[in-house]
Amino acid sequence: MSLAVKLIQKGASALFSASGVKTAQTVIDNKPLLTMAKEATKELGEVVKLRLKPDISIPIRPSTIDNVKPDFAIKYTDLDNDIVKGEIGNMALRLEKKYASQVSEAREKFSKMFPGKKVDIRSKSAASIYSKIIKNVKEKELTLTKDTDVESFLTDGVAGRLTLESLSRKDVLDVIKNFNVDGKYLTAKEKKFLKRYFSGDAKLSKAQTKVAEKYAQDVKLQLAEKQSEEAYNSVILSMMKDALDRKVVTMEQLSKMDVNPKLLETLKNNPDKIASLHVPRFCNYRGPDGLAYFSDNQIRNIKRLQVETGEKYTLDHTSNKINLSRYNISELPADAKKGIKPGGYTTTQMNFYLSDGSRAELQIRGEGCKIAPKSNEKITFGEIEHVNYDGNQGKGTINKTFEPFQKAKAEMSKNEELAGKHTRYLQKCYNYDRTVEVGIKGKKPGLAKGLSKLMSRENMTKLHYVDEAIQKEKMQSFKPYVEFEKIA
Length: 488
Known about the structure:
Elements: H1 3-16, H2 31-44, E1 48-53, E2 56-60, E3 74-75, H3 82-101, H4 103-113, E4 119-123, H5 126-140, E5 143-144, E6 158-164, H6 169-178, E7 180-181, E8 184-185, H7 188-198, H8 206-245, H9 251-254, H10 261-269, E9 281-285, H11 296-309, E10 314-316, H12 334-338, E11 347-353, E12 359-366, E13 369-370, E14 378-379, H13 381-384, H14 386-393, H15 403-412, H16 416-437, H17 457-475, E15 481-482
Parallel strand pairs: 6-12, 9-10
Antiparallel strand pairs: 1-2, 1-15, 3-5, 4-6, 7-8, 9-11, 11-12, 13-14
């Protein structure tokens, strides 16, 4: 390693900390670092590795990084070429900057949609964008000629997450009290058995359990609708406002829809207080026997809005009336099939257009469950299980902390029976979260026989927090830098 290269690293770190530079929002704003990267090519070659995070690097091509698009067409057949990888790294840095600049617009929209509610917003990092580009170009055999081509598959460059509050025991009792089938309310005994069933009473007889189970699923569906009602109202109101703004629907048409009259009144009298939400894709995901956040009735209204506007867009949802224990998932219609996630992943998410025409994402999910008996902290299984998902996607953003988990998973995947048991375990974990979120006492799922303890929720939770602490510690003193490895 030459003295010049050593000075490049030291100089980049020092310049990054200089006055005015430390406020750079993204790596591509860090001009001193990129200048050093260009200098490094004299010894390291046309492509250099840029260390973006303590454990993650991507290749970049400094000589063309100031371009507004790739220097040449990026083809799926050329992904082994280092110059191509460098150009993809350049795209990732430029897109990271673009997405970071759009956060304020998304925040303003969410603040208007969900006043008083906290919506967590983030823009995608260059490392994550790079990984997504490689994966999609390879799998879909794409050719990219400009940075915006990436937006055909990367629709969550800017994403917001609204967390729904969990229901209380009182909410459960209220729903049971008012629950009816074709106008016929439950008897006192039926209500009593349901209350005991939902509180986890182990002393219920088989006959009593059978009575409770007769109504349990329909009550759960009403609870889910109750939990998401406020968020749904905000979403459908903003979608209607957008349709009016674009003049693809009239108030008269909207008045025929089965929506809360108060929403229409607000839309008519206070339109300026409502955010517009133009949605090109809507997904209401759940597992095969999971509990979705938005109900059939709520999705039906969103479909009705499609009819009234004459606009058709992707709407992935599987009706709760379809018995998936008897119905072959492969036989479902395409949109219904996509609404089911085999691993149990449960969330409601939608893409929406920003002012420049690019797409962002809004995700709505619950707050999960307590991570330990003596802790008040809650975390969703979706947050914990993400490392499992990232591993499935072949992402290059998995830190070393998770290597034992990934190794155990790879070994398990060789056994079809164990892989099936693991998938069912994931489904049960997602289902447990949803049960707790709607105010019902559930039983934590245990690992099936033969599965390594490394695959358990408890271990994934532990790894999540260990890695979070490690990365936080590393980031306190970390500065992006050029690596010394000679590439091309």
